[in-house]
Specification:
The protein contains four helices and no strands. The protein is mainly alpha-helical. It has a single domain, classed as Tetracycline Repressor, domain 2 (Orthogonal Bundle).
Length: about 80
């Protein structure tokens, strides 16, 4: 999946591929947490705090990747369509 993974690229030492992998891991942790919570309660009753606690990520990580919980569902269906 990450065959082209490099620790740092040669242009300014930025670790772009490593960062992209971490972003994908964080998004998937958040998505998985949301779907676990959905087994317990309705979507409208789920809070960002519950999602971040279950995902074991900070709120900043959540908001760096999603602006609201509905975007997690969009991310999931976009990833499913790409497979």
């Amino acid at each position: 999946m990450f065959a082209n993974f490099r620790v740092c690229d040669t242009h300014g030492g930025q670790c772009t591929l490593k960062r992209e992998k971490q972003i994908l891991i964080s998004k998937n942790m958040i998505k998985d947490a949301l779907f676990e919570i959905l087994m317990e309660k309705d979507f409208r009753d789920i809070t960002i705090s519950e999602i971040t606690r279950r995902a074991k990520v900070g709120r900043m990580t959540f908001y760096r990747n999603f602006s609201r919980k509905e975007e997690i569902v969009v991310f999931f269906f976009g990833a499913a369509a790409d497979s």
